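Project standup — Tuesday

K.O.: blocked on the structure for the chain from last sprint. Re-posting the sequence here as requested.
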Amino acid sequence: MACFVVPAATAILTSAIGKKVPEKYHMNWLNSMLWGGVAMLAVEHLAHKEVVPYPPFLTAGFSEVFPEMMRVGIPMTLIIFLMWGIMVAVATKVSKRVSYMET
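H.V.: unblocked you, prediction finished:
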């Protein structure tokens, strides 16, 4: 029902600080992954009528929403960060290899 709230809040934060982070960390990749996941989950929840386009927006109460955010939203966000970290590490390694081979 609300697992997309955690990556959405994270995406808002990373989008706000993204310009201050060095380009080598590819914050645009992280933001794309987070916002893409949020969009996908929001559409899925809209299709199942778990989220509605009018207040209170979520069809479940806080007692159901909070555990889902903890059980699904946080692990999902952490996995996105892990995958982004792997992508940045690989890109850095490839970049160093290419620059080494050019010299």
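K.O.: great, moving the ticket to review. The radius of gyration is 17 Å. Helices lie at 5-17, 27-47, 62-102.
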